[in-house]
Amino acid sequence: MKKILIFLGIFTFSILAFGVNDKDEKEVIVTAEFMAPISVNVIRHADFGTVIAQNYSSKNRPSTSSGHHGEIKISGDGDIKIQWADITQGEPQDVKNTRNLKVVLTNENNPAQQINSEFMLVENEEDFKNIENLKLTESSPATLFVTGTLTDISSNTPSGVYKGSIVFRVEYTDDASN
């Protein structure tokens, strides 16, 4: 018992006399930034309308203007990066690096029959400028238009309803230039 008391006395004296070296202590600051979740909603699907199978000049190709442009609404709070792809044709690519996205449309009644199209993602239906940078705020979501052109229609194009799909991937980015 005496040995324990002596040991405790020496230990207590050591701590009081020499103290704890505060140079051996460092503070780690922990932070967390919360952002609104990103939400992507399809307001309207793109539609070329009824197209006559005939030869078209490159300046007069059928477009979604004859039906209606697709429309998506993106909500969030911060700089975002948008990627897209033909759902059947590989990995999504950055919208800003892909001015025209090639999308294959397949005849519903005969999958061997396909036609090609090209799409753009724009901020304004009247101004066909591709998306470069996009910054969202919680109070101001972005509405974007999906505009397209049929690129290989001829008088030999078989009748039928042709469909394809575009997949969009939207995520926050730290890079203000996306």
Characterize the structure shown.
The chain has a single domain (39-172), classed as Immunoglobulin-like. Helix content is 10%, strand content 36%. It has one helix and ten strands; from the N terminus they run αββββββββββ. It has a six-stranded antiparallel beta sheet with strand order 1-2-8-6-5-9, with no helix packed on it. Strands 3, 4, 7 and 10 form a four-stranded antiparallel beta sheet that branches. Strand 3 (78-86) and strand 4 form a beta hairpin. The longest helix is centred in the N-terminal third of the chain and has 17 residues, at 2-18. It is elongated and about 105 Å long. The termini are far apart. This is DUF4402 domain-containing protein. It comes from Fusobacterium ulcerans.
Features:
10% helix, 4-stranded antiparallel beta sheet, 10 strands, 6-stranded antiparallel beta sheet, Immunoglobulin-like, DUF4402 domain-containing protein, 1 helix, 178 residues, mainly beta
